[in-house]
Amino acid sequence: MSGVEQAEAMPSPGERARPAHKPVRLTEEHQERILSEFHSEAQLDPHYDLRLLARVWPYLRRHILLMGGALLLVPLTIAATLRQPLATKHAVDGVVSGDMEMWRSALLVYAVAVGIEFVTRFVQVYCMQLSGQRAMVDLRNDVYAHTQRLRLRFYDHTPVGRILTRVTNDVDALGELFSSGAVMAVADLLMLFGIVGHMLWIDVQLTLVTLAALPPLALAVEWIRRKARVSFRNIRARVAQLNAYLSEQVQGVQVVQAFGREDVSAEEYRIINDAHRLANYSAIRYDAMLYSLVETCSISCVALVLFYAGVKAGAIDDQGRAALYLGTVVAFYQYIQQFFVPIRDLSTKYTIIQSALAAAERVFGFLDTDDVDRDSAHDMLEPDPSADPLIALERVHLEYRPGEPVLRDVSLRVGRGEHVAIVGATGAGKTSTISLLLRFYEISKGSVRVGGHDIRTMERDRLRSMFAVVPQDVFLFQGTVGENVAMGPVVDREGVERALARVGALDLLATRGGMDATVGERGGNFSAGERQLIAFARALYRDAPVLILDEATANIDSETEARLQQAVATLIRGRTAIVIAHRLSTIRQADRIAVFHHGAIVEEGTHDELLEKGQVYAHLHQLQFDAEDAPAS
Fold it and tell me: Is the same domain home to 299 and 350?
């Protein structure tokens, strides 16, 4: 082997250091916690099927013409189907008796009945599925609109994957009611009554023999129904668990890979996936049991009818009458086949109905979530941008959870055109204060006034139009830079270019295509600094009376910060600005600085005044100064 080949064959230092792969073994306690606690689903009321169906009706009512057309054809379809065995009986009777005219008439009636059934069933299925899909589009739109109205505190404790399951998987499962024809189960029941009526009309005794096996079947179906409902509810819960876990792990894949957690993550996913598989096994078992019971009952009924008919025909002395009885037996055989077709279909549709009802529980349970933003009828006051002070917090208290205050007795006034900075340690309540101004959360006590009015007396959209926010963690949507700056598909190109130019981002993005540069998912194809510059341009483009910078320069390097500082100074000149600062060097020119500590304002003043006091702000400043001057290791 040559020296080159030997070098290539030798493992690299990283490969030599990497331990051999070992299967991950999680403790039983950890596995139980994953299945029982990780984004577990609330148990919903299992006894309100009719109420669930009533909740679907308003969506179907919007497409009543299509549904009405399908339902109006049901009697015609049933009549055509039920006429076929009678036509067969007459055809057999005609052959046995030698009456060829009866035979030809029966064949003609049979052909017409088959044609009518084909056409009416096609129109029924087409109209029903079309109306069902349109109804599901409306339902999906309502679920999505509901997600937009929910308060942020709902998303604080609800996994994204569970919400996605409601909008996608659960609505799709509900839509199976229409695509599978399960919603026409009522027509199947009508068919059963029609078949029994025709059988009684032809021969009462044979009908009673045929129906002898039905009571045990009904008891078995009821038992299976109760068991299957639990299984399908478990399936929907496990699907939500899978989506929630997958969503979290995909979003955090960089951290997973950085800490070498792939094997643990895969094992945890396998545990949840196995639970989903077992839930499906249970549903499959009950489905197979129901189908086999129906098949067994069908075969048993045919055997009983043939046996009884043979005994009865043997007891008839007149050979001619006995031969004519053949047509009745043939008709009964066909009716038995028709009788168990809807029962067989009902067993299949029942599986779909149970899955749909389990999904409907979760969809409408989500829609019933009352943690939504509502503006009452009297919320019509308009904020006045010329009011002074423009913003006023009076003895504000905030609790995300009862007994755990985040803000305590906070009072702060921001005059029109004033530049106020908010500083404090992590968790001191800085960002919570901004969330109150935008009414993302409701205060526990006190009052918040913007533009001269209490924010609870204004429409949220009008209130939020007063602010332009530049957050620390910038979220960009898929599309173009221009669409992200304008926050929509309608872009004022001149306004966007002007905003990008003022923050110094236009030339920086020129090589990517400028404002037409493509933005990937969450802006992952841009650096943190570039995303921050786009967020600044977004705030400039909005041109709101109040600018809020939430540690907006925390993720920006020194070169980008220098590019940004002049633009920020121009932006806030003559404009009301609230700056949450991480680097205290960026707020020295603020008109006033409010220092937060453990949810309360402990100091207010200019940079120099607060340094002279030598208290909390001076301590924070000294810590940051020492950290910046510490020699690199």
Answer: yes
Q: Using an 8 Å Cβ cutoff, are 151 and 440 in contact?
A: yes
Contact 128, 181 (CB under 8 A): yes
Q: What percent of the chain has pLDDT over 70?
A: 80
The mean pLDDT of 29-46, rounded to a whole number, is 54
Domain span holding position 418: 374-466+546-552+577-623
User: Do residues 351 and 264 both lie within one domain?
Assistant: yes
Does residue 633 surpass a pLDDT of 60?
A: no
State the Cα–Cα distance between residues 470 and 490, nearest whole angstrom.
21
Residue 107 sits at φ, ψ, to 5 deg, of -65, -40
Question: Which amino acid belongs to residue 221?
Answer: V
Domain-ending residue, one of 325, 352, 367? 367
Amino acid at 251: Q
Q: Tell me the pLDDT tens digit for each residue of 282-318.
A: 888 887 887 788 778 877 777 777 777 766 665 555 5
Do residue 398 and residue 292 come from a single domain? Answer: no
Domain closes at, from 343, 367, 391: 367
Same-domain check for residues 339 and 385 = no
Gap between the Cα atoms of 476 and 535, Å rounded: 8
Mean pLDDT over all residues of the chain? 77
How high is the pLDDT of residue 394? 92
End-to-end CA distance of the chain: 44
DSSP H or E stretch at residue 567:
helix 558-572
CA distance 469 to 544: 9
CA 283 to CA 285: how far, in whole Å?
A: 5
323 & 399 share domain: no
Three-state SS at 98: coil
pLDDT band at 626 (very low <50, low <70, confident <90, very high): low
Query: For the residues 489-493, what does the mean pLDDT come to?
Result: 79
